[in-house]
Design brief:
This protein is an alpha+beta fold. The chain is built from eleven helices and 17 strands.
Amino acid sequence: MDELDFAIIHSLEKARGASSATVRARTKVLDVRKPVIRGLAETLAKLVGKDGSAVYWGQFGTNRREGLFPTHVKNLASECTEEAFFALSEVAMEELRVKASEESFATGGHVCFFLYRVQSMSFLLVAMVKERGGMVLTDDMEPTEITEIDLSKLHQAARVNIDRYRAFLTTSGQDAGAVAAGPEDSTEKTYLCFINRKSQSDVAGYFVEALGCEKGVASGRTTKAVVTEIRNFVRSVPEIKDVAPAVRLAVIDYLQSLEDGSLVSLDKVVAVARNAVGVELEEHVAGLKDHLNSDGVQIPDEFPVSATALRTYTRISAKSSRWQISFENGALGVDDAEIIYDCVEKSLKLTQLPHEMIKKVEDTLAARAQLLSGASEG
């Protein structure tokens, strides 16, 4: 965390089984210069995405129950002021109070709001911490001590990438936070994520609904990204880069074995990659899930498989008595492709040949005196 701009804590008070909830609100923002405030913000920000919690990517909903929270996030994105931040926290608490009152088994907690920056990107984090343990608060909802906060105390959380949301609003021309449906293989406008501990049966429950969040990633984009990012990750690790093609093929084969639209867990995909790497080297894929689930890549903990996207990886194979060829659909085209098909000549042209293959071809032709002297140099 490079800079903490604003922070405030309110309390949502509700016992399990109760039919109503109340809010105990703080009347002004916290002093972000105090080490305990910054320490709390950094601790909670680091817990989002930590192994043991499920991260779901999405956007503000389109079911007309997004409520007032997205509008106030929009206000904060356009004018990042203390007043806008405080108003947002008040609206969020009222939305949480209403939704918690409707859920008999919902429980309350301390709700922490932080606006901070990391590498020039602004984030809004709303995190609910269970009241027992974790931190000591004054009657005015100001933390004086952080004892220990881990995933057992982080109940639910939502994080909005303010810069990405601002860009979305600019390009979409939307008046509110709803994402318009786009092509299946389009780049998803996922500017927010929310988490819930894996031990809980519901996916962030009333908390996510109250803030107007909605799960959703483009299945086509996500399916392609899984294949591409796993290959990139394996290739980036010197100890296992040589098995990157085998790992990529194993992941493709696994995804193609599933029905279109089937939900697949990120844990299962990572397990397939780990198995392809082999027991002796599997330690080198330890960071793969964190990479896939990161803000930059945005593969959710669970996603639908796109058969359309996987057709790109379907292989075309042929052979004769003297040659054989096999390549993925995605490599084929009539112009500017790795493999170009000439409709007139009924022939294929291979481009972007690996250096090793070029050398073997040119050495063979040179040995037959079919290549001009010096053509293979350089």
